[in-house]
Each structure stands twice: as C-alpha cells, then as structure tokens.
Amino acid sequence: MRQRARGGTPAGEAGPESRGGRREVGNTVPPFPPVTRLVPRASRDGGFTLLEMIIVMFLLVAMLGIVIPRINLDEDLASTGRKFIGGLRALQGIAMSTQKPVKLSLDLDQGRYWAMSIDGKEEKHVPDAAWATPRMLPESIRLTDASSGSIKRTAGRLDLMLYPNGRMDEAVLHLTDAGNNVLGIMVESATGAIRTSDVRIEPPRLAAIPDRVKTLLVPSATVASR
pTM value? Predict the structure, then answer.
C-alpha cells in the first residue's frame, strides 16, 4: 500500500498546487482560457478599392493640368495690364508735378516701353528711378497693336504724350498671351480715364462734319473771294 503523506495526500501525487503555480480543482479547469481568432469579413462598407482610388487621382491630375495653366496665363495677362496702367498714372503724375510733358514710347517689336521727360528740345530721363531703364513685357505677353488718333501700329514704335495739365493722348492698346486671351486698354484724352476690356476695343471714329458746319470753318477771306 502507498503511504500517505501528512495531510492525507498519497506520496508521489501532486497536491493542490499544480505545475506553474496554478491551483487545479479536480483537473477540470484548463490552465489558460481558449483564444478565439478574429477573421476579418470581406466588406465594402465605407471603403474604396485601389483601382477606384487610382481612377479618381488620374481624373484630378487631368483636371488640374487643364485649369492651372489657364489660371496662371490669365493672371499674368491681368497683372501685366495693371502694371502698365499703373505706369501711365505714375507718368501722368510726373508730368503734372514737374510741369513738363512726358513721352511714352512703345516698341511693339521688342515688347518694351520707356518714358522720357521733354525739357524744351531735349529729352531727359524722368525723375523716377523706376523708369531708369526700359520696362519689358513678360515673354508670354505681346503688344499686338497700338493706335493713337489716326495712327495705328502693329509693328515698330508708337509715341504717346502726357501733358502737364493731366491730359494724355488718346490711345487703344491690345495685349495678348500664349492662349490668345486679349486685354484691351483704352485711354480717353478728354477725361484722362483708362478702361480695360477682355475683348478687342475699336478706336472711336471721328464724327463726320455736316456741310453747313464746314462753311463756318472756312476762313472769311476765302468766302469773300468766292
């Protein structure tokens, strides 16, 4: 017969404290609880496939490729027009402050313009360091035509005068960019107003003089000799 150890436990048998320090009750409790593996279910709720994301990104890139260059060109044309008009206003102020006419020269071939102050029969640089050198148009902008009175230029040079009383020679200018967008600039001589348009501006036509008015313009000596 097996000898029982103190406490009533047979010799060679494990007591209440089993291996690993866990207490077993009738050998019915497993040492660790069972582990349940979570398997993800295939679901499309709230998600996109890789192919769908690639297609969306391709469409966005295509749209940006169309929109961004147009925005940049339009802004470049508009900013060039604002800079040119600002230069006109600055020269107008110089002519009034110095009480000397200022001549603005436009070079349609080279895409540049500059200003000189008229002092008697001499031409001098205007007293403004910003006009010390000719101003250049951006490479993508062209001065396609310029007219003043009966003179119209599509090439070569055109001169505009700004007078000490604030008047300016009437003028119509057209700037275009690489996308053939147009910016028209019109200077009104009588009022000195400057307006712009995104379409071509036709120069104002001189009204025909009625025959009854023409007789009033003939010198009296000529009328008496008839």
Answer: 0.59
